[in-house]
Amino acid sequence: MEGRPGSQDGQIASPRRAPSQQRSRERVERMLAAASALIAEQGSDAMRMGEVAERAGVSIGSLYQFFPDKRAIVWALAERHTAESQACISAALADVSDAEGLRRAFSELVEIYYRLFLAEPVMRDIWSGTQADKALRELELADSRANAEFLTVVLKRLRPAADPAALETTAFLVWQMGETAMRLAISVGREEGDRLVAAYKRMALRELLTE
Amino acid sequence: MEGRPGSQDGQIASPRRAPSQQRSRERVERMLAAASALIAEQGSDAMRMGEVAERAGVSIGSLYQFFPDKRAIVWALAERHTAESQACISAALADVSDAEGLRRAFSELVEIYYRLFLAEPVMRDIWSGTQADKALRELELADSRANAEFLTVVLKRLRPAADPAALETTAFLVWQMGETAMRLAISVGREEGDRLVAAYKRMALRELLTE
DNA sequence: TAAAAATATGAGTAATCCTCACATTTGCAA
DNA sequence: TTGCAAATGTGAGGATTACTCATATTTTTA
């Protein structure tokens, strides 16, 4: 969306160089801490590299000594959480051996994840997408609501006795999940994409047709 | 992710000025056509305003005469399709009066949408997000697959007779939809967010626990 | 202790969005 | 027709910011 000099070829490079001395390890920590704070305050899109360097008390050059580009910083922060939550997921599901166990473990997992989404600034930032697109996505959301509304009308007609708010939530969610399935489908191969869309259709219909 | 001069406050402005003369209407059409072609070729992120102007045969100034910023062009293109697909959705669902009708209409709708996703460059561009984030999302996807894998293992354990590929697709989709539900939940109000997560949990469990 | 490797610096480069002062064309009333 | 206001057209330059690189300093190693 904006001007830029350097390279940008859709790759996420690893740290340009691993800090091997005590001194640089501490400085890298300061950089990450500064970035984390700035992301929490304003989001990664508004975060300026110069600002990160200044707050960390290092020069802009040092920043690029260890992080090849802006995304690498965000990603480095994200990776810590990713590893942690993978361990958590693995632990929660490891011992499941029957349906009831799955129900309990999965329910708990959803709650944990939801709290993580609500509370963790860096992950929240990544999950929210760039600030630049926020306005676009807001409009998309409005469109999606409008589309889901057509579905809501049908559901209310078919199930007059059900709670209207619940039907609205269901319709909205089903619709949004459809868009997710499509998005996924076009970003994976065609074959897997077809399977995903088919699976979505089945799931959605089950939800829509079960009273 | 990059440098920029002007204003950017998360708003999408409407055309700065509506073209009222025949001449300018034609020029605006040319601008939109040029933008559409460029988006199809390289995506909106790589599309440069100067390039749009050049290909449309107008000056950069004229572009900004009618479009306040880059996003406005993309959005103007998207709006045409949006109106069209809303009409299509409305028509497909309008006459549904029973469960079988809903099943048919919804199935057809999913297919239509899927084809639209696959074929329409501008919408595909919007749905794919910015190029800048593509690498990040690829890594997110990998993480998501890894997380879903834990779920797959459980499902295979609980349903040894089922088709493994189908279980993988289900687990992946369920997981991805969970992330969608979370993303939604944090971008709407807390109350609606809670309802969405609860609805997701119910849907996911129904899918996971039904053989 | 001297050479090599790692680390630090920040002014400068490059890239691109968008503005603005001024030129040109069009619509329209006298 | 003529004159004027409104609409439209222009493109050089302002502004911002990611990232580089030649050079200086510190740490490790031989």
Structure description:
- The first copy, chain A, is mainly α and 211 residues long.
- The first copy, chain A, folds into two domains: 14-68, Arc Repressor Mutant, subunit A; 76-208, Tetracycline Repressor, domain 2, CATH 1.10.357.
- Helix content of chain A is 75%, strand content 0%.
- Chain A contains nine helices and no strands.
- Residues 1-9 of chain A have low confidence and may be disordered.
- Chains A and B meet through helix 4, helix 5, helix 6, helix 7 and helix 8 of A and helix 4, helix 5, helix 6, helix 7 and helix 8 of B.
- The structure holds a DNA duplex (30 and 30 nucleotides).
Number of domains of chain A: 2
Please, how many helices of chain A?
A: 9
Task: Write down the overall geometry of chain A.
Answer: elongated
Q: Main interface pair?
A: A-B, 92 and 92 residues
Can you identify the CATH class of the largest domain in chain A?
Answer: Mainly Alpha
CATH topology of the largest domain in chain A: Tetracycline Repressor, domain 2
How does the helix and strand content of chain A classify structurally?
mainly alpha
Task: Tell me the Rg of chain A in angstroms.
Answer: 22 Å
SSE ordering of chain A: HHHHHHHHH
Task: State the end-to-end CA separation of chain A.
Answer: 46 Å
CATH architecture of the largest domain in chain A: Orthogonal Bundle
Strand content of chain A: under 5%
Quaternary state of this entry equals homodimer
Q: Unreliable runs of chain A, pLDDT <50, ≥5 residues? A: 1-9
Number of strands of chain A: 0
The main β sheet of chain A shows up as: none
The level of helicity of chain A is over 70%
> Overall pLDDT of chain A, averaged?
89
